[in-house]
Request: fold
Amino acid sequence: MVTQDKQVIAEYGNRQVNVFVMTLQEYLDTFWKMILPSITDLVYSITASLEARTRDKDYVGYLPSDVIEAGLKTGHYTQGFLNVNKSNASQEAFVRRRRQDRREDSESDILVHGMSSRNRAVHGDLVVVELLPRSQWRGRSNIIREGGTDTKESGEDDSGEAISVMPTGRIVAISQRAWREYVATFSQDEETGLKGGKVLVIPWDYRIPKIRISTRQVEALRDHRIVVRIDSWDSDSQYPNGHFVRALGRIGELETEVAAIIIENNIQMSTFSDAQMKELPVDTEEEPWAVGEEEVLRRRDLRNSHLVFSIDPKGCEDVDDTLSVRTLDNGNTELGVHIADVTHFVKPGTLTDQEGKSRSTTVYLADRRYDMLPGILSANLCSLISGVDRYAVSVIWELDSSYKPVHVWYGKTIIRSSYKLFYEIAQAMSDGMSTDDIVKNVPELQCQPKRDIKQKVTELRAAVCRLMEVARHLKARRVRGGALELESTEVQIQLTETKSVEDLTPKEHLEVHETIAECMIFANHWVAKKIAEAFPNSALLRHHPLPREDKFENLLTCASAKNYKVHTDSSKALAESLNRCDDPNDPVVNKLLRSLATMAMSNAAYFSTGALPRDQYFHYGLALDLYTHFTSPIRRYADIVVHRQLMAAVSKSTDTIDLPSNKDLEELSEHINHQHRASQNAQRDSQELFQYLFFKGRNPDDECCTVDAVIYQLRANGIFVLVPRYGMKGPVYLKNKEGQVAYVQARGQLEWTGGNITRTDHTMTVHTMFGIQSYILLDHITVKITLNNSWAHSSSVRLELVDNQPHLSTSADSLMKEQKAAIIKEVSEAAEEKKGHRSSVDLGENFEELKKEYGQSSTTNNMYDLFQSFKEMSLKC
Reply:
C-alpha cells in the first residue's frame, strides 16, 4: 500500500482541479468504517495471510523514499531505532518512537514480531515502521528463554503467555544502517553452513543474525573468535552477506574475550598517536613540569590560604576533585570544590581534544581501564595529587548558618592538595580514630615534624567532620525536595587489596562516600545554573526524564506482596514511600525494592538547552531543576565542554568562538550519550565475564556456589531472583524444555516431574503428584551457581534451584568482601599462568616444530636472521 500527500493539483483539460489520492487503508477508514467496522481488520488479515505465504524464505522490498517521507509527515509511518530482545532474538524486537513521532495515543514502544516483520533490519538500525491493525497486535512473551533462543530454526512454538497486548508493526524501510564490526565464531559442526564456498558464522551477540562470508580459513580458525562485517542483505536471502576482517584469538582466553567485549560495544581504544603526544607538556626527571609564573598571576592562589584535600576510593589514580572547608571571620562557612583544569592542557580543535571527543569517556572494565586522555594528563599533570602545585577550576560558596549560599565564586585557581585520603580513613577520623592510628594511615602526616603532628591531625579531623556536617544539611534539603536514594546491586570489585583499616565494611564508610557525592552534586547544580543563564540556547546540561508509569509495575507488585504501598506520582512521593518499605527482619527487601525502582527509571542523558523546552531541563532522580557534569573532566568529555562554557560565562570577554552552537551541541550530546551507554555495557559485560571465569575454576560443591536468593519477578516458566551476596540477578527455571516442572523432594534433591504451574500476582504454585510447592515474591530460596557454557556467544553463570527455603548457612557470607576482591586477582593470575605456561612450552622444546608449522626454516636461512644480518651491517656502517 502506498501513501501519497492527501491533496495534489492536476490539470484536467484547460483547468486545474483538486485530486485526492488516498491509500486503501484511508479509503476503508473513511467510507466503510462506520458501515462495517470490521472491514479494515478483515482486509488486513487477508493481506497479511497472502504475504505470509510468499515470505517463507524471502523478504519484501523497501518502500520508496518519497513514499516514506510522505508517510512520516502524515503519521502513517513511525521512525525509530530497532532494539532486539536479546533473550528472544528471533521473535521480539522493539522500536522506540522518536520524540517528534510520538502521538497522544501512542506512548509505548512498537513490537516487531518475527523475522519477516523485521524485514532484514539489524539491531541498532534506524527503521521506518508501519503499525498493523489492532487485530494483529501481540504481547511480549512472558516465557523466560535461554539467551537468543531461535524459535524459528529450532521449531519451537512462540505461543507462550503474553504479558499484555501492545502496538505491533512491520518494518517497511531502513533510514540508516548501524552495521559495524561484529565478533563471530565458526560453527563447531564442520559441515554446517558450507555451501558454494560460503560459510555461516554465528555472531557473539544473540541479536545479530548469522552472517554468510567467504573464507578459506575455517579449519585454521575453527576455535577462534573472528571479526566480520556485513556488506549487504538481499531480499531473496535468509541471511546477510559479509566478509572476514581478522582473527581475535582462541575462544575462552581472557584477552580474546575482553577484546570481544570492546568490539561488541563499538569502543575504539587504540594507543594515543605520536602526533597527539607531541601536543602535551613534558614531565621527566631531566625536564620536570612546573607551573608558569604568568599563569599563576591569572589565577586565584589557594596554596597557602586553604586546606585542600581529596577523599577517594582505594586504588584511585586520577584524582580530579578536591575539597576545602573553613569558617570565615563573620561566622559563615566557606565550602570549596576544586576540579582539575583539564582545559588548560586540552585546547579546542587539537588532536588531543578530537581524540577525547571521540572516546567521550574513560572505560572501566573489571581488570583494566581505557583512558579518555593520555596518561601524562590523567595520572599526572591533571591529577590533583598531594604535595604538588596543580591548576584547578573552582566553585567556592559562602554558606550562612542554615547552609544556604549567600555568595558563590567561579574561577580558575592554583592549589596544592595537602592530603590524599581514602574513604575508610576519612570515616575513621570522623568516628574518633586515635591520632597515632591516623598518622599511620596518612603518609603526608608522617613527613611532618613531630611537634606539628598533633595540630595537623586536629586541623584535618576538624575539616573532615565539618565537611560531613555541611554535606548532611545539603543532602537533607535535596531529599526534602524529593531526591531518590536508589540501590545499585552491581558487584564493584576492588582492584587493590585493603592494606589498612581492614575491619571497616562498606556500610561503615558509606557516610563519607555520600559526603563527597553530595558536594559534587552541589557543584554540578550551581555550574548548571551559571551556564544555563549565560547560554540559554546552547548550554550542555544533563536531563533525567520522568519514568514511564508502566515501568513501575514490577516494583508495585513486589511491594504489595509485603503489603507496602509505593506511590509513583512524583519523585518525592516515591522516595518517601520507599523509606517506609522497611522490614526489620529482612534488610534485603528495601534494597531490592530500591533496585527495582532504579530499573524502572529512564536513562539520564546530556542535551543542549536549545533542544528541549525549559520545563524539561530537570533531573528527576536528584530532584533538581538544573544539573550538569562538571566534576570529572579527566574521564568525561562532557565536563570539558562544561568547563569551557563556565569560563566563558564568568569571563569579561565576549569571545565565545570556540563554544559549540545549539546544533553542534545536539550532535555532540547524542555522541556522548552513545559512548556513555557503550561504556556502561562494556563494564557490565566485563563483570559478567569475570564472574563466569571465577566460578569456572570452582568445584560445584564449593561453599561459595550455593547461595541465598530473593524472588523479585514471576514468569510463565520460572522466576527471577537477586543473589545479594554477589549482586547478581538472573532466572531460575521451574519448568524445563520438556514441560516438566521442578519439585524439591529435600534440600539439594530436585525432581523434574509431570505437573503444572499456576500463578497469581504474588505467588507461583507448582502442582505435581508429589505435592504442591509455592514461590512468593520477596521470599528467599536457595540456588546453586553453575556454568552456562557457550561456544559462539559469551559464556555466563546460571542459577539452578536447590531448595524452596532460604539458604541455611551464613558463614560464607562473611567472606563476601574477600571473595569479591579476589575474583579479579584469581582470574587474572590464572590467565597469566596459562599464558606463561603455553609460551614456555610453545617456545621451548617445541620451537623448532612451531617454526616448521608456520613455514620457517630450522636453519639460519630464514627472514628473521636475514633482517638481523641487515641490522648488524647497518650498525657497522
